[in-house]
Amino acid sequence: MKIPVRAVFLALLCAVAAPALAADPANPDAIDAETLTEIAGTLASDQFEGRAPGTPGEDKTIGYLIGRFQALGLEPGGVDGSWVQPVPLLHTQLGKPETLAVTVKGKTTDWKYPTDAYVSTLQPKDVAAIDGAQMVFVGYGVDAPERGWDDFKGQDLKGKVAVFLVNDPDFAAKPGEPVAGKFKGRTMTYYGRWTYKFEEAARRGAVGALIVHETEAAGYGWNVIESPGGENYDVVRDPKDVTSVALQGWISGEAAQKLFADAGLDLAKLRTQARTAMFKPVSLNATMTAKIPVTQEVVQSQNVLARIPGTMRPDEVVMYGAHWDAYGKGAPDENGKIYRAGANDDALGIAGLMEIARLMKADTPPERSVVFAAWSAEERGLLGSETYANAPIYPLEKTVANLTLDILQTAGKAKDVILVGKGQDTLEDDLAKYAAKQGRTVTPESLPERGLFYRADHFSLAKRGVPVLLMMGISGATDLVDGGKEAGQAWVDAYTGQCYHQACDAVSADWDLAGAVQDISVMYAIGADLAASDRWPTWKDGSEFKKIREESAAARE
């Protein structure tokens, strides 16, 4: 790989050398807030052009990251002794539909795009087409043997369009219903995520996958559904591994209601039936036809990986991760800013990664190897980490844990730390231990029904069985020393409502990184402890990923 000279120069100019002495991992003063601000500010500057994959901004970002890791004294951790892992991405963009319609009992209804239905494609074709495919309602579309649940009951979906309900079978369950609590109640499981439903449709050979939108169950309105504008990304796959689904997406609640009514079906009653284990798929006696032009291209991107080798068990790996990418160039905001550069999402996480690397390198050499991954294409669907998980450089069965930083709290020192994914694995016990050393408690995320546990890069490793822990500041209202939970919620509301994925996500004089420093320090302490031990974190009973990890137990004995 050729790194631009300008980017290398900038990297070396900005890099910070490691100190001579290590710090107490539980001491928040070990993390330098000024360095966090400097790194985040550099990556979010106009010079890096919003850090979109496959752009000149990526070239500068990759050079900057490599330069900093080099200056800290870390080793290359990428492919064949390099600093990087290639991440080829399929980028698709739908044009104006020539046809997008459903036919019920001989009557054809044209769906308005994207008002009635929003779709995209992950197939590398110039036209996304479905030719009169039968439509089948599959309830929540869950196949969970460990929970005694199978919505498909042997239904053949090959060549058909699967229609799903959003979220889990027990999301809307009333007290006393047999399903209540079977899928963690209001806390979303992986089976409730739209990604799982699309993947399950493809595994069963469907040509289309549509989810009926409900704002409460989805956690967001239709405006969020249609915001990508027909664009999608995927990893570049071998032809035999390309999804069978030509179009995937959502049906608005109104369009779904009309579709079911035209078919002589009561959607409300079917929702209730779908909350029982006895549910069976229902033919809609309808067909779907679509023909939509597609612009496609392969975008070349890269993950950056650095390594501190272990002294006793170098084949066992503790991994830290954060994503370097943001959204690149967009329409000017009211202040004329055009770059959606993600100072907090996730330049600040990258800065935390660098500070942890600095402390790790200054400390006693770890017994296990410690790997630092700066992922590409998180904002395109966790695709940098997914690329790694598909072709891991370090065996996943001997990856001890993945610790991810993604959006940190910038509102000041806190009395607690927010846990994302309560009840998943024993790393939450480590979180409680080291938070207590700072005099803090652990508070579970406030909106578990939104499934944040499944929406950051750690998840690519989790679904392959690697125990994970996510530090994400917007997952709940933290109890701030100055202002309490009310002030914590005000910060979350302001960031998510105004600057999340917008140009105003920039380094600000209003930032108070004392809370971010606390959180980064806890993550450092957890990783340092694991790197100096022979302990293996485990998944807890009830986790979707426990069985996957258990299948590779022999490799860790």
How would you summarize what this structure contains?
By secondary structure, the protein is of the alpha/beta class.
Keywords:
15-stranded mixed β-sheet, 15 helices, Aminopeptidase, two-stranded antiparallel ribbon, Glucose Oxidase, domain 1, 24% strand, alpha/beta, 2 domains, 557 residues
What can you tell me about this protein's structure?
This protein has helices at 5-14, 33-43, 56-71, 194-203, 215-218, 222-226, 253-262, 267-273, 343-362, 383-390, 427-437, 458-462, 484-499, 514-531, 546-550; strands at residues 75-76, 84-94, 99-104, 107-110, 117-120, 127-137, 143-144, 149-150, 161-165, 208-212, 231-235, 247-251, 282-308, 313-323, 328-329, 339-340, 368-375, 399-405, 416-419, 441-444, 468-471. With 557 residues, the chain is α/β, with parallel strands linked by helices. It has 2 domains: 5-15 and 28-73 and 309-556, 3-Layer(aba) Sandwich (Aminopeptidase), CATH 3.40.630; 92-296, Glucose Oxidase, domain 1. It has a 15-stranded mixed sheet that branches. A two-stranded antiparallel sheet has the order 7-8. Strands 15-16 form a two-stranded antiparallel ribbon. Strand 19 (416-419), helix 11 (427-437) and strand 20 (441-444) form a beta-alpha-beta unit. Helix 1 packs across helix 3 (56-71), helix 2 (33-43) crosses helix 9 and helix 11 (427-437) crosses helix 14 (514-531). It starts with a helix and ends in a 7-residue tail after the last helix.
Indicate the topology.
Elements: H1 5-14, H2 33-43, H3 56-71, E1 75-76, E2 84-94, E3 99-104, E4 107-110, E5 117-120, E6 127-137, E7 143-144, E8 149-150, E9 161-165, H4 194-203, E10 208-212, H5 215-218, H6 222-226, E11 231-235, E12 247-251, H7 253-262, H8 267-273, E13 282-308, E14 313-323, E15 328-329, E16 339-340, H9 343-362, E17 368-375, H10 383-390, E18 399-405, E19 416-419, H11 427-437, E20 441-444, H12 458-462, E21 468-471, H13 484-499, H14 514-531, H15 546-550
Parallel strand pairs: 6-9, 9-10, 10-12, 14-17, 14-18, 18-21, 19-20
Antiparallel strand pairs: 1-13, 2-11, 2-13, 3-4, 3-13, 5-12, 6-13, 7-8, 13-17, 15-16
